[in-house]
Amino acid sequence: MTWTGLVVRNLFRHPLRTLFTTLAIALAIFLVCAVLTLPAALQAIFDRAASNVRVSVHHKAGLVYWLPFAFVQKVRTLPGVTAVNHWTWFGGVYDEPKNMFPNFAVDPDNVGEMWPDYRIDAVALDRFRKVRNGAVVGDVTMRKFGWRVDQEVTLRGTIFPVDLTFRIVGVIPSTTGNAVILLFNRKYLEEAMEDHGGLKNVGMIWLRAERPSDVDGIMRGVDALFRNSEAEVAAETEKAFFASMFSSMQGFIRIILAVGFLSVAAVVLIAANTSAMGVRERTPEIAILKSLGFRRAPILGGLLAESLAQALVGGLLGAGGAIAMSAALRAAGTSAYAQVLGPLGSFRMSPMVAGEGIAIALTVGLVAGLVPAWNGARLNVVEALRRLF
Amino acid sequence: MASGDRFAKLARMIDVRDVSRVYTRGADTVHALEHVSLHIDTGRFVALMGPSGSGKSTLLHLLAGLDRPDTGEVVVAGERLSALDEDALATWRSRHVGLVFQFYNLLPVLSAIENVELPLLLTDLKRRERRERAEIALRVVGLAGRAHHRPQQLSGGEQQRVAIARAIVTDPDLLVADEPTGDLDAKSAEEILGLLRELNRAFQKTIVMVTHDPRGVRFVDAVVRLDKGVLVNGAAA
Amino acid sequence: MPIPLAYNARSLLVRRWTSAFNAGGIALVVAATMLLASLVGGLKRMLVATGEPDNLVVMRKGATNDGSSQVPREAAQTIRVISGIARGPDGEPLASAELVNQPFMITRNGGRENVLVRGVEPAAFRVHRAVRLVEGRLFQPKLGEVVVGQGVVSRYAGMRVGGDVQFGRRRWKVVGVFSSGGTAFDSEIWADVRDVQDDTRREGYSGLRITVAPDADRDAVVRRIDGDPRWALEAKPEIAYYREQAETANALYGLVLTLALIMGTGAVFGALNTMYATVASRTAEIGTLRALGFGRGAILGSFLSESLLLAGAGFAAGAGLAGLAVFAINTLLSGIAFSMMTFSVATVRLHISAAGFAIGAALAAAIGTIGGIAPAWRAAHLRVVDALRRA
């Protein structure tokens, strides 16, 4: 028999009570892991999707403001730029208005060079260059609408007064950061728009740098190039671009974090109650132990160890449950359920969040158990003996 | 350290000099002991008796090093207890005193032999040695066959015997018992008192026992009577 | 005969700390749930309030919101004079042609987001009857002047009367602040439609808002607009339009219920622990009560009531805490910024709606019931002799 053995046996004295407390902690930690994943997941989405050699160039006033297409040619001259491409939001809908998803007119010639992380295979890229109405579509969108490669699909224009029919020539795999978009050849849109005043504008321009160290130079170059132009231009790294897109979610994230915090506080009270109950019931035993010569420190340690053990098991269960759920969501996200889940499908819980969850669980165990354990250890033996006998 | 050597050195096991103790219980102030002086020789089996509230339990607590007097001095086995701080007192207790209470003696989550082993956790003994000592102690009290039973599975008398086994497992100088038969039926009470008597005789254990039980008088060497915190009969035992 | 509730209340008070901690745990779970629900409540309230009962929203066929719709100038001119549209005291039709734009704005915290700029004509202030100027004056035409909603003032710098702000391609002058009674318009900036057209290099509008005349047939007006072969437009009641926008809020209710379920279960475990312990420690009392003649039903009811009493206390504290948090957030932060379907950000004032209140109450009641029934059952089915023996 050892101290650890004693701690374990004390926990099993009231098995239901220990089980309930452990489960309550597990539930709270599960919630906390989900809550903590939110900012981390957002961060991961644009860490994955945003490279540090790509620079976005857009109108300073906002993304709804066009840039003249002629600007694309101008930026090609900047030193350090290895590739130039562009996005123009077409805003097409498939079949019903609610089937809106991101679709862009781009330059088909160097999609693979600009966005190697999209991992479009070489055959698809080649066809994309050759087929005038070719389109490359993200895997998630393909599944959502049940499209197949080589199928022809028509998107109705919402911003442009034209409907376009595309032939799907390739897929963007769902393991990349961008499996929802559809890319097509800008020339195809230009032709369609000839009867409606033509298309002389572009939404935003993308530049690729040779090395990350070239990025600052390129951005300054862009600023200088367009300082006195008709359109005010802003250049920023892709990371910064995505980061600012999510900045408006801060308030919502704060509420979610507050909710998580309140849940942890609730479970601290529940666990503290359990600890206090246990100590109260065992006052005679503690008196005996102290009278036998056991000092405060080991008694405190033993009581605290009980609280921490419960919390640790609860934390492992909760974090484990969260990991399992995130894996299940990810599996479902690449299946037919992707449409239903939406963003939840790319929910990715990192091991670090699990670690944080367990750390929080241990803190709960410590905070909840400390005061009752302290009071228990500090028990005045004679007073206890007087009260008991 | 064999008991025999120590006994040879110390004739006087317990020396209580002019001790007073006052404590508060809620709103009341209780003068538990008033200028009590007493000495007890080594190897004696002494009963502390007196009406309820006479201070006998308080005196016992002082002898066991569980409490400190407000005035006066308590010397046990040559040790001046007032010179020890709380931690040192705890350590001293674990080595020199064996305790038996009226109830709540045993931890319900541990078996009989594990309960007996408990005080040995405070020593440097290895697991096997602890186990062996505990087995011997249980054999002495006649419960070797019940080693792995939990307290709930033992009768009141058996539980007290386990408590006594625990009290002697560290080979203490002094055995202190607070109403050991208070919760037992007549037959078990007799057995326990007999056991204590045996321990006293066979191993020359100094035993101080607080008791209400008039039967106890038959088993002890001397009776010290207290009333309202004051010794009624002689100061020597 | 039931056991008086006072017995339970006093038992709870005697075990002061345990009761407080248990009620506290329930309170925090209720507070968290009601806080999240207040976001949904605020969102719904804002969107539902925004629709005027006799207004119609006219957009391009298939558009989901007026941020991504286009209505040509000629179409707007034709629709303005359709019969069935109400007229103002001066005889002018209550038809507001509007151009919605979403330029970048830098928030006070340095974040960058899209703000909704609505280019309007004077008719807008008569069609959107809830919009009222509370400070300053209306903008003059073609001077780059704007009036801003109250929600905008706190979110971005410089948004006060006399202030000067940059968005789009130019600077604008703030000449007034309006309130729309907590609707979505409070998060918008209104400018002269021609200034917005210049800024975005667009002609035409994104949509029209029209007020139907009180004696006109609304459906006839809708059919007229929908059926016009020259333009592909559709009209829908403003209330229906905003209700559709509020659909996203319903998805959030799913989140609220998930939270309530998870944390509620945790709180149930806590309540079970407390109630089982209390039953165990009051075995003697129960034995006495049974011996005195109180039946099983009375004992069950008594302990269940005690659990519900605790849950009730927890609910009261939790609702109070949530209310305090909502007040604090609304006062200090003016609400929570939320991305709307219009690709712009609106500041949502948190609001504990009747639904939010009911969710909190139901949660507390469920915790009290589920956490109390099993222990109460055990208490009621104790054998009397056993109970008394343990006394």
In which range does the helix fraction of chain B lie?
A: 25-40%
Order of helices and strands of chain C: HHEHEEEEHEEHEEEHEHEHHHHEEHH
Radius of gyration of chain B using CA atoms only: 17 Å
Largest interface: A-C, 51 and 59 residues
Order of helices and strands of chain B: HEEEHEEHEHHHEHEEE
Percent of residues in helices of chain C comes to: 40-55%
CATH superfamily (homologous) name of the domain at 43-65 and 95-231 in chain B: P-loop containing nucleotide triphosphate hydrolases
Detail the topology: elements first, then pairings.
The complex is a heterotrimer of chains A (389), B (237) and C (391).
Chain A: H1 3-11, H2 15-49, E1 54-59, E2 67-68, H3 70-75, E3 81-89, E4 103-106, H4 111-114, H5 122-130, E5 134-138, H6 139-145, E6 152-156, E7 163-172, E8 182-185, H7 186-192, E9 201-202, E10 204-209, H8 215-225, E11 233-237, H9 238-246, H10 250-281, H11 283-292, H12 296-333, H13 338-341, H14 351-377, H15 381-388
Parallel strand pairs in A: 4-8, 5-7
Antiparallel strand pairs in A: 1-10, 1-11, 2-9, 3-4, 3-10, 5-8, 6-7
Chain B: H1 3-9, E1 12-25, E2 28-41, E3 45-49, H2 56-63, E4 71-76, E5 79-80, H3 86-96, E6 97-100, H4 112-117, H5 127-140, H6 156-168, E7 174-178, H7 186-203, E8 206-210, E9 222-227, E10 230-231
Helix pairs in contact in B: 5-6, 6-7
Chain C: H1 5-14, H2 16-50, E1 55-60, H3 73-80, E2 95-101, E3 104-106, E4 112-114, E5 116-120, H4 124-127, E6 132-136, E7 145-149, H5 150-155, E8 164-167, E9 170-179, E10 188-192, H6 193-200, E11 207-211, H7 218-227, E12 233-237, H8 238-245, H9 247-281, H10 283-292, H11 296-333, E13 336-339, E14 345-348, H12 354-380, H13 384-389
Parallel strand pairs in C: 5-10, 7-9
Antiparallel strand pairs in C: 1-11, 1-12, 2-5, 2-11, 3-4, 6-9, 7-10, 8-9, 13-14
What does this structure look like?
The complex is a heterotrimer of chains A (389), B (237) and C (391). Helices cover 56% and strands 15% of the residues of chain A. Chain A is α+β, with helices and mostly antiparallel strands and 389 residues long. Chain A is elongated. The model of chain A is unreliable at 337-342 (pLDDT under 50). Chain B is built from seven helices and ten strands. The relative contact order of chain B is 0.20. Chain C folds into two domains: 5-48 and 247-389, no CATH class; 62-231, no CATH class. In chain C, 52% of the residues lie in helices and 18% in strands. Chain C has helices at residues 5-14, 16-50, 73-80, 124-127, 150-155, 193-200, 218-227, 238-245, 247-281, 283-292, 296-333, 354-380, 384-389, and strands at residues 55-60, 95-101, 104-106, 112-114, 116-120, 132-136, 145-149, 164-167, 170-179, 188-192, 207-211, 233-237, 336-339, 345-348. The two termini of chain C are 24 Å apart. The relative contact order of chain C is 0.21.
